[in-house]
Amino acid sequence: xxxxxxxxxxxxxxxxxKRYRRRWALSGCTLEIPAGRVVGLVGPNGAGKTTxxxxxxxxxxxxxxxxxxLGGRPGDGPVQLARVGFVAQDTPVYPAxxxxxxxxxxxxxxPGWDAAEARRRIEQLGIDPRQRAGRLSGGQRxxxxxxxxxxxxxxxxxxxxxxxSLDPLARREFLRSVAGTVAGRGTNVVxxxxxxxxxxxxCDYLVVLVASRVRLAGDIAELLAxxxxxxxxxxxxxxxxxxxxxxxxxxx
Amino acid sequence: xxxxxxxxxxxQAAVVxxxxxxxxxxxxxxxxxxxxxxxxxxxxxxxxxxxxxxxFWGAPLVAREFEEGTYRLAWTQSVTRTRxxxxxxxxxxxxxxxxxxxxxxxxxxxxxxxxxxxLNQFATFDQRGIAPIGYAAFAFxxxxxxxxxxxxxxxxxxxxxxxxxxxxxTEFSWLRPRLLHPVLLNLPLNPASTGYGQQGxxxxxxxxxxxxxxxxxxxxxxxxxxxxxxxRGRALTTxxxxxxxxxxxxxxxxxxxxxxxxxxxxxxxVVNRLQDCVAKIGTTYHEALAYQxxxxxxxxxxxxxxxxxxxxxxxxxxxxxxxxxx
Lengths: 252, 326
Fold this sequence. Notes:
Strand order of the largest sheet of chain B: 1-5-4
Number of strands of chain A: 9
Number of helices of chain A: 9
Shape of chain B: elongated
Distance between the termini of chain B: 21 Å
Structural class of chain B: mainly alpha
Largest sheet of chain A: 6 strands, mixed
Largest interface: A-B, 35 and 22 residues
Strand content of chain B: 5-15%
Radius of gyration of chain B: 26 Å
Helix content of chain B: 55-70%
Strand order of the largest sheet of chain A: 5-6-7-3-8-9
Oligomer: heterodimer
Order of helices and strands of chain A: EEEHEHEHHHEHEHEEHH
Structural class of chain A: alpha/beta
């Protein structure tokens, strides 16, 4: 990969670190992901996944190092903000604001807003637009958050453990919505989870992050092929990730 | 962004507008305009409204976004967070000023007849006119800043209240008397109206009793200082007083005619002794008075508004700086 060829890079981090008071949430993270991918970011709790994604969305500023998203500095002006759709962990919404109010809000705040698409999605989910967002089920709330992020028509969609708190059925439906969105647009996606099964459904690229370090990164099909022993059983992605997490050294 | 902020503010703004309209109707129709108790409580309402605005509009503005995690939604729309906060500060800040201003307007109008007969306009200075607009803007910005720093609504509300009260007390007791040059007045000591004792309740702890001249009747003015000084401007000391008048203050109280000090009627002998003492002191000492005349009322209102609005703008900029680097 050539890091100066920005159009071809989804995310490039170099020596990236973030410190909160005395605790480093992420330190010395170096990573390069090619564009046009649906990326699964997996790692144990505390690996720095959320911090990395917050840095990529421009929600927080880095303490050390640099990060570029689609060739731009995260959160640097309205154009860069418009290019990245973000679904935060626990999918926060304004409890007192109605679902329709959220769509109107996003319409006001995003020049590229696709109102018809947003309405269609909400309709399809059977959610009453007059309902207050605070009274939605966890699954519905996640779908609303996804709708808000998708209908602004971003070039990159970042999802930070969006299904962690959902029941298995809502989880499957949510991931299916994401998959449908990706198929329809060819958007770049980064989806984090601590469950490999979530990622296997929709991702074609995998990054394993352990304690701020990239343990494994690459095209999923290539990773599986390269780790398969000659004439042996096919390797499961699960085993590959567990093996990557439990080894001690760094591999790039 | 303006439309979004209005959308979020709509419910609260409707409640406040309704309450203001109701108050105006009640004040105009139901409350008799010679009702002193109603005048008192309406004044208190104007006094506490800025603090309530700071606590309930200012403090949650940013703190609740952090508390509920919605900052991650708000700051990933296609609007920079600087613009997000500028608009929020401007829209809700102007709404705060409008609410406090309208309330003050209604109360100032309603209390007009009683205020004019009371002839003590500086006593209600903080509850009338345009000063409350400045207090509301300041309290709001203070609340937003507390929320941005603490990031939790409830503690931010209490910090806002405490800081607002501290600032207002300091401003009122220290800064406001110094904003405009007072009118100075020297009067001879009047033995018939000068008492002996202490003023206020708390001052008992900090000062010893002294001679207390009764201030002259100056309608609609604000007496900011009152003392007994000699020709060179030196204040009367306790030692000098006790050497000139040995035995003063012994035997219950000793207020002169209408003096501030005495509570009970003192025996005639004590009164005579005090009056002799005041006459003796009066040969070298006189009463020195500093006051803000009635003509300073509106200039002081404008100063007050300008000071608190400037402070609000400064606090708002600190908020922006804090949010930008979080």
